């Protein structure tokens, strides 16, 4: 048995891993890769796509992002705290139905772009739509890797963000007929420990405290809502997340 075989969890039909390296190393062995970035990318994807919109992931917000938005006939998300729609779930709560938006994100978007290159299905999940995503995966009967996108330290290294592990566990809990890897089982255990008080736990995480300190407490509250959306955002050929409804 090779080292690659061990770390890629290939003996299991439901897997869990962290960040962009997790996508390329573990996700490559699955039919579906689920991206989880609770605060805030995949929560934003759920909100926009549930309204019939399309979310185009993009790694950075720069001049190339503006050109990309023009190419796609989409608006470019503003910086958080700007006057327009942004990577803030609260800012998107009134977005018009059918809006096409380019949403730069260094974590969730980056993981999405890498997952797309694997040629499998890519789904965006958060706490809001975790049950719907699980139901859809059960219906397909497909193997899956759930990726907790995490955050970055200032030196660029991955910072595991516990809220993403909680969100991943919420999806994995809904897959009782899958064979969960030990990593996936632990993600479920973390979720089950946290689900009785999600708002307080998300608010107390490093990422949550950072957002609250910057005035975005509402974003944390929105992200903590559990199983309220039946949207399953799937990355399409246009490289956009659009949703199907799956109760």
Characteristic key phrases:
single chain; 247 residues; alpha/beta; four-stranded parallel beta sheet; 40% helix; 19% strand
Structure description:
40% of the residues lie in helices and 19% in strands. By secondary structure, the chain is of the alpha/beta class. Strand 8 and strand 9 form a beta hairpin. Helix 2 packs parallel to helix 5 (108-116). It comes from Brevibacillus brevis. Its EC number is 3.1.3.71.
Measured by DSSP, the beta-strand proportion falls in 15-25%
H and E order: HEHEHEHEEHEHEEEHHHHHEE
Q: Which regions are unreliable across 5 or more consecutive residues at pLDDT < 50?
A: none
Terminal residue distance = 40 Å
Q: Can you tell me the number of structural domains?
A: 1
- Helical proportion? 40-55%
Q: Going across the biggest sheet, name each strand in turn.
A: 1-7-2-6
Shape: globular
CATH topology: putative 2-phosphosulfolactate phosphatase
CATH class: Alpha Beta
Number of strands: 11
CATH architecture, by name, is: Alpha-Beta Complex
Pfam families: 2-ph_phosp
EC number: 3.1.3.71
Cofactor: Mg(2+)
Organism: Brevibacillus brevis
Q: How would you sum up this structure in a few lines?
A:
The protein is an alpha/beta fold. It has a single domain (3-245), classed as ComB-like (putative 2-phosphosulfolactate phosphatase, Alpha-Beta Complex), CATH 3.90.1560.10. 40% of the residues lie in helices and 19% in strands.
Give the SSE map.
Elements (H helix, E strand, L loop, with lengths): L2 H5 L6 E5 H7 L6 E5 L4 H10 L3 E5 L4 H10 L2 E2 L23 E5 L3 H9 L4 E5 L4 H11 L3 E5 L2 E2 L5 E2 L2 H12 L8 H13 L3 H7 L1 H8 L3 H7 L7 E5 L5 E5 L2
Parallel strand pairs: 1-7, 2-6, 2-7, 3-5, 4-5
Antiparallel strand pairs: 8-9, 10-11
Helix pairs in contact: 2-5, 6-7, 7-8, 10-11
Enzyme class: hydrolase
InterPro entries: ComB-like (IPR005238), ComB-like_sf (IPR036702)
Cofactor: Mg(2+)
């Amino acid at each position: 048995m090779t080292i690659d075989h061990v770390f890629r969890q290939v003996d299991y039909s439901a897997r869990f891993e962290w960040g962009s390296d997790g996508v390329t190393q573990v996700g490559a062995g699955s039919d579906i890769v689920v991206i989880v970035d609770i605060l805030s990318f995949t929560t934003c994807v759920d909100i926009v796509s549930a309204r019939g919109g399309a979310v185009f992931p993009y790694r950075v917000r720069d001049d190339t992002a503006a050109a990309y938005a023009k190419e796609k006939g989409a608006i470019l998300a503003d910086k958080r705290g700007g006057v327009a729609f942004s990577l803030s779930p609260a800012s998107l709560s009134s977005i018009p139905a059918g809006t096409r938006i380019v949403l730069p994100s260094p974590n969730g978007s980056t993981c999405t772009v890498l997952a797309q290159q694997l040629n499998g299905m890519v789904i965006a999940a958060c706490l809001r739509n975790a049950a719907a995503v699980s139901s859809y995966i059960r219906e397909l009967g497909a193997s899956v890797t759930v990726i907790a996108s995490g955050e970055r330290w200032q030196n660029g290294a991955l910072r595991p963000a516990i809220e993403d592990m909680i969100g991943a566990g919420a999806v994995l809990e809904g897959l009782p007929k899958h064979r969960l890897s030990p990593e996936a089982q632990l993600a479920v255990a973390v979720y089950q420990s946290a689900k009785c008080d999600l708002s307080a736990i998300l608010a107390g995480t490093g990422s949550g405290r950072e957002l609250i300190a910057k005035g975005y407490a509402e974003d944390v509250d929105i992200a903590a809502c559990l199983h309220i959306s039946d949207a399953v955002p799937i990355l399409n050929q246009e490289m956009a997340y659009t949703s199907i409804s799956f109760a």
